[in-house]
Amino acid sequence: MSDKPRRTTGSGWEHPLFLWSVQFIGLFVLWLALSGKLTVEFLVLGAVSSGLVAFLSQHLVLHPARAEKFAPVPINMGWLVATTLRFLAFVPWLLYQIVTANIQVAYVILSPRLNISPRLVVFDTSLKTEPAQVMLANSITLTPGTITVDVNNGRFLVHALSVNFAEGLEEGAMQDRVARVFGETSGDTQGVRTINQPGELDD
């Protein structure tokens, strides 16, 4: 019998209706922010669209096979408030990284030597929960010069524009910051290496 914690969906924070409500509210607020209109037809269309998208994407939240691959996330108000505050502190740091990476990419492109050396880099993250891994993947992609190609069981495949961007992944600063957001213990990015052939990804 497995000792791995299992996710339940019967009550409380993980009840399907609660999760659908959270998705619906988030999507509807985004709709309002992007549309900029408060007329009745826009409100009705936004509500219907948000509800439908939340319903059709519920399997992404409740899929048990996927949930078993990750450590369970604490489900309580204290964790949610603390994580939100830590995330708000993380955003300015990420914006700074985006700006500096933009400058680096512009310098590489505008340099007469065009010093680029595109490569695929693979590493194993120490992050255990799904939200942390998703945030790390998106943060890497948002930072110019690197794009997350694939994430599978904690193994990240990232395209880097040059060796400098690849070395930045090896330093693990972004992983450390994401770990703090979710209250995880950060470790080194393990096995950072360049992929030359597709078969090397499974080594």
Radius of gyration: 20 Å
Structural class: alpha+beta
Which stretches are poorly predicted, pLDDT < 50 over at least 5 residues?
1-11
CATH fold category name of the largest domain: Alpha-Beta Plaits
Question: What general outline do the C-alpha atoms trace?
Answer: globular
Sheet with most strands: strand arrangement: 2-3-1-4
Tell me roughly what share of residues is in helical segments: 40-55%
Characterize the main sheet. Answer: 4 strands, antiparallel
Average pLDDT rating: 80
**First-last Cα distance:** 29 Å
> What would CATH call the class of the largest domain?
Alpha Beta
What count of structural domains? 2
Strand content: 5-15%
- Number-wise, the strands total 4
CATH architecture field of the largest domain: 2-Layer Sandwich
| Number of DSSP helical runs | 8
